[in-house]
Amino acid sequence: MTDLDQLTQSLARNLKRWRGERGFTLDALATRAGVSRGMIIQIEQARTNPSVGTTVKLADALGVSITTLLDYDQGSPVRLVPASQAVRMWSTEAGSSTTLLVGTEAGGPLELWSWRLAPGDGSASDPHPEGTVELLHVTAGDLTLVVDATSYTVPAGASATFEAHHPHTYRNEGSEPVELTMAVSIPPLR
């Protein structure tokens, strides 16, 4: 079984589990997430590997982290995640990528990400639920962060935080790769 097959199976199992725990029908989750009922059925039957955007919408609608949707086997008080088990969620031919390093549900979903943006690449994100906060630290290059149509330059060594219920985009408008680490804090489902 390939990594993608394992990811697809894990997502199918966990989406069903969390939808059941929340008491959401297919229609209720579809409405909450803004994802079609048919897409949710395909995901729960492990017949498709959804986009990062779709996975984020489903996680947000369920009030869990993407990590929880991908794997919830957390028996020990310490969870070590080897580099080989970090999940590459998005990549481009130019070499840009995002990797979900680790996450937890304690006190509301919390995720830690590693990003790399090749020159000229970018990634737009739909607004997250009210109360979601993103923190980022740029380790290489100059990141262009666009939040609610306003651009901010975040150079290497600098950090930023913002309320992620606003539309936001990460871009590399420079000639060198941008690398950053990001934490995302999602409020618990109400």
Can you give the mean pLDDT?
Answer: 86
Structural class: alpha+beta
Tell how many strands the DSSP assignment holds: 10
State the low-pLDDT regions, or none.
Answer: none
Radius of gyration: 17 Å
Following the backbone from N to C, one meets helices and strands in this order, namely HHHHHEEEEEEEEEE
Side by side, the strands of the main sheet go 1-2-3-10-5-8
In one word, what is the shape? globular
Largest sheet: 6 strands, antiparallel
Percent in helix: 25-40%
Helices, by number, come to 5
Q: Please report the distance between the alpha carbons of the first and last residues.
A: 37 Å
* Portion in strands: 25-35%
How would you characterize this protein structure?
By secondary structure, this protein is α+β, with helices and mostly antiparallel strands. The protein is 27% helix and 33% strand. It has five helices and ten strands. A six-stranded antiparallel β-sheet has the order 1-2-3-10-5-8. The protein is globular, with a radius of gyration of 17 Å.
List the helices and strands and how they pair.
Blueprint: H1 3-22, H2 26-33, H3 37-44, H4 52-62, H5 66-70, E1 87-91, E2 97-104, E3 110-117, E4 122-125, E5 133-140, E6 142-147, E7 150-155, E8 159-163, E9 168-171, E10 178-185
Antiparallel strand pairs: 1-2, 2-3, 3-10, 4-9, 5-8, 5-10, 6-7, 6-9
